[in-house]
Amino acid sequence: MDTAVLDHLRERAKTLRRHIISMLGEAGSGHPGGSLSAADIVAALYFEVLKLDPERPDWPDRDRFVLSKGHAAPVLYAALAERGFFPAEELATLRKLGSRLQGHPDMKKLPGVEMSTGSLGQGLSAANGMALAARVDGRDYRVYALLGDGEIQEGQIWEAAMAAAHYRLDKLIAFLDHNGLQIDGPIREIMSPEPVADKWRAFGWDVQVIDGHDIRQILRAIEDARQVTGRPSMIIAETVKGKGVSFMENQVGWHGNAPKAEEVARALAELA
Amino acid sequence: MSKKIATREAYGEVLVKLGRENPDVVVLDADLAKSTKTYDFSKHFPERFFNMGIAEQNMMGTAAGLAAAGKIPFCSTFAVFATGRAYEQIRNSIAYSGLNVKIAATHAGITVGEDGGSHQSVEDIGLMRGIPGMTVLAPADAASTDSLVRAASAMKGPVYIRLGRSGVPAVYEAGVELVPGRASVLREGIDATIIATGIMVAAALEASDLLAGEGLRVGVIDMFSIKPLDKDAVVAAAQNTGAIVTAEEHSIIGGLGSAVAEVLAENYPAPMKRLGIPDVFGESGTPAQLLEKCSLTPPCLAGAVKEVMAWKKAHSES
After folding, report:
1. A121-172: per-residue pLDDT in tens?
2. If residue B93 lies in a helix (H) or strand (E), which one and from where to where?
3. Which of A200, B162, B170, B307 is the most buried (most CB within 10 A)?
């Protein structure tokens, strides 16, 4: 793998993290932990993998990305802005009245958002629908989805998991942001979904387990998933909630609290 | 009298026609294709039919994804599961997202019959009507089902279509064209107006006939479009006849009766009575027995009309 590409993507991930911190600081509320844990995956997708055209957000042959864990909206918004779907200055309007950047992604408002998400457990079903539509229409775009590890406590996820395997949706590649924490505490204490890899395998998926902060592993896993035929792919990304900001890492409290001005400054210094 | 046809039968037929006319039409079902009548579509267009198994939430979400990719999905299952089990998927994945999904739910109301109250949706209209941007349609017979399913498919945005299990008499000629948002005034009245929806439209016409035998002229409006509601038709009926009875095979809370009461209260208060299911769940029985028990028969409707007329008279004398 080209080291220049890897370096570039690492820089992009850092940029996304800086945006996340700044926009949440500006907004005064929101979800830093799960946005930061997903930043490397999202950077790899938006700056290397996804076939997109910001000039034509509704291009029928584009790849789709569904952020099923919709509370990580800041990382998606940062990627869309950096990819040119809207001006980066608009990131400062997050969660404010009249903004296109709603607290959770709203596809009606913001170009580039493929599905309105936020109510957990619903995004994978929509991704399945997009993959089925590709089949009906004879198009060869791929559909990517990002799930939270707390989110998979929702029953609908397993309905969707069953359906994706049943319909052999091999154009579907999902990530599990396995950061181990949810609002009320560690997922293993609240309602353990473990063992996650075995569960997805048992549901008929191709499963890989990777370090979700290693860009090289992320890209390789996507490449391998693209070779899978006859079944959907799940890439379980072992991640750290709050990754990149020392005082946020692995802290449950940073699931849904925005940093104050002084914390923003400290975080940005670490992400410089 | 012509043969009774269930609105779900008419749905199954028009779906096949739509499938032929529009390659974007796709159909999803939750293991009830033979009951909801999407089965015929599945045989004609297997590549555009998706049986999602007994998993309604995923069905609605999958439909949202199909719609986001330009398809026109029709989702079918029993009304109680469509609107109850998968309510929040309809709300967030479909309606909040503004997606072009048509939810055609069959076995609505108590005329499900023997399966009992667990399978009889009495609150589905209320649930769907409260969702911003949702169109709610309840056809009265086969011909209007054909027209409204076509209308739903031609319009953009989410639509809930309420269909029944049991056969109903024809109200319209084949080929009738109904427009969502515009009520169908089947009979002009002088003394009172019955505003009915779904299978109660035929009963309302019968009630009007019964009262005609007593020299009363009772109007009948088919309010197949519960949302958007034809406010002008409601207000005109109140202005012209001064007494309104609503009739629906649905709870008196949240459905047609509520919608009409809202319009009258704000625009032209008039004596009215809501006939429907009186804030109770259904139970096992034949459809006819259950309608009788809920006072949803033509004689009961006629009785309610007289009650409202008496109230109107008392009003005008006071």
Report:
1. 999 999 999 999 999 999 999 999 999 999 999 999 999 999 999 999 999 9
2. none
3. B162
Pure H helices in chain A: 3-27, 32-37, 39-44, 73-82, 123-137, 155-166, 187-191, 196-202, 215-227, 261-270
**Residues of chain B with pLDDT > 70: what percent?**
99
- Give the Cα separation of B80 and B77 in Å (integer): 8
pLDDT digits (tens, 9 = 90+) for B55-65: 999 999 999 99
Q: What ipTM did this prediction achieve?
A: 0.97
pLDDT band (50, 70, 90) for residue B318: confident
Q: What size, in residues, is chain A?
A: 272
Q: What is the pLDDT of residue B3?
A: 86
Question: Residue A110: closest CA among chain B residues belongs to which residue?
Answer: B97
SS (HEC) of A202-220: HCCCEEEEEECCCHHHHHH
Q: Look at A127 and B96 and tell me if their CB atoms are within 8 Å.
A: no
Q: Do B93 and A126 touch (CB under 8 A)?
A: yes
Average per-residue pLDDT for chain A: 98
> A132-165 burial string, b = 16+ CB within 10 Å, else e?
bbbebbeeebbbbbbbbbbbbbbebbbbbbbbbb
Indicate if the pLDDT at residue A78 is higher than 60: yes
Q: What Å distances lie between residue A25 and A15, A21, A103, A261, B19, CA to CA?
A: 15, 6, 14, 6, 51
According to DSSP H, which parts of A38-95 are helical?
39-44, 73-82
Q: What is the rounded CA–CA span in Å between residue A69 and residue B183?
A: 42
pLDDT-derived band at B261 (thresholds 50, 70, 90) equals: very high
A149-161: per-residue pLDDT in tens?
A: 999 999 999 999 9
Give the pLDDT of residue B316: 84
Is A129 close to B88, i.e. CB distance below 8 A? no
Which helix (H) or strand (E) segment is A247 a member of? none
Q: How many CA atoms lie within 13 A of A225 on its CB side?
A: 29
What confidence tens digit (pLDDT) does each residue in A201-223 have?
999 999 999 999 999 999 999 99
Structure tokens at A110: 């913001």
Quick check: helix, strand or coil at residue A62? coil
Tally of CB atoms within 10 A around A209 = 17
Helix, coil or strand: residue B308: helix
B72 three-state secondary structure:
strand
pTM (global) more than 0.90: yes
CA nearest to A129, candidates B48, B105, B2: B48
Residues paired with residue B195 on neighbouring β-strands, in sequence order: B221, B246
Active site amino acids of B: 56
Contacts of B19 (CB under 8 A, 6+ apart): B25, B27, B41, B44, B45, B48
- B220 to chain A nearest CA, in Å? 40
Judged by DSSP in three states, B187 sits in strand
Between CA B282 and CA B113 the distance in angstroms is: 9
Q: Are A17 and A34 in contact (CB under 8 A)?
A: no
Whole-number pLDDT of residue B317: 82
List residues in chain B touching A: CB distance below 8 A. 26, 47-48, 50, 52-53, 55, 57-58, 60-71, 73, 88-89, 92-93, 96-98
